[in-house]
Specification:
This protein is α+β, with helices and mostly antiparallel strands and 256 residues long. Helix content is 50%, strand content 7%. Strand 4 and strand 5 form a beta hairpin. Helix 1 runs parallel beside helix 3, helix 4 packs parallel to helix 9 and helix 5 crosses helix 8. The protein is globular and about 50 Å long. The two termini are 33 Å apart.
């Protein structure tokens, strides 16, 4: 569980649930959906990534990785979205988002961690196909600032260095990223052929972990039509109130 002791001590006095997030973030989407599914009240703290608010001393003092989301629950700070949704589901037991059997629960966690472990492949594809969308490349000055301030996640720093370089990601890197995503989606499509949900027999954190990936990849034209069972699964989820309130309500116009 990614619970940390923040250097920004002001958050230790916060009461209730506070979420630091941005609208078009797949990681933030899954946390907002979980909060909505659980029927929890929470306080919104928007972080504008385009203005580098995540690099402010105030925010890095809360989340040293300089990413969103961050959850603060009565002064307890949790900085990883997979851990956040698990924490919320375990602490607030009403409306469980976990399957009933141990084997199905393990399957749920496998799906959650698969989504987390492959997030850089998804970011690589997304950042390389944002034609007509705001660029996520950093200037040399911005990159220097980011490198100096974000000292906890070397892989993420390297990602931004490659994305912001003059040549960008190579075709080999793009092919590798798409292969990873295709493998994940094929695995999901196979599971969903004979099952309505990714783990167990009802909607769970596994589904919440993955639906935001489809949202952001759809915006950059990923060929989701190649996975018909995945498309049917997606159609059932986007009708849920938690999707409308936790995802659509926070998206910029270009992503709806």
């Amino acid at each position: 569980m990614a619970i940390i002791t923040p250097t920004n001590k002001s958050v230790l006095s916060l009461k209730g649930l506070h979420l630091y997030h941005t609208g078009f973030s797949n990681c933030a989407m899954r946390v907002r959906m979980t909060l909505e599914e659980k029927g929890l009240e929470w306080v919104s703290h928007p972080i504008d990534l385009m203005k580098d608010e995540n690099l402010s001393a105030e925010y890095i003092g809360i989340n040293p990785n300089a990413v969103v989301p961050t959850l603060v629950d009565d002064g307890v700070v949790i900085i990883d979205s997979a851990d956040i949704i698990d924490y919320l589901n375990e602490k607030f037991t009403s409306g469980s988002l976990s399957p009933n059997t141990n084997s199905d629960q393990q399957q749920m966690y496998d799906w959650i961690y698969l989504a987390r472990d492959n997030h850089l492949s998804i970011k690589t594809y997304m950042y390389s196909n944002m034609r007509g969308l705001p660029s996520r490349k950093k200037s040399a000055q911005q990159m220097d600032e980011y490198r100096n301030k974000q000292t906890f996640d070397a892989a993420l720093v390297e990602f931004h260095e490659r994305n912001s370089s003059e040549q960008g990601f190579s075709q080999k890197e793009l092919h590798k990223a798409k292969t990873v995503i295709d493998d994940c989606f094929q695995k999901m499509d196979n599971r969903l052929k004979d099952n309505p949900w990714l783990a167990g027999d009802h909607f769970s954190l596994a589904d919440i972990a993955w639906i935001p990936q489809l949202v952001i990849l759809k915006v950059v034209g990923y060929p989701l039509e190649n996975y018909p069972h995945l498309e049917k699964w997606k159609a059932s989820i986007i009708e849920r109130p938690s999707f409308k309130n936790g995802v659509l309500a926070w998206l910029p116009a270009m992503a709806k």
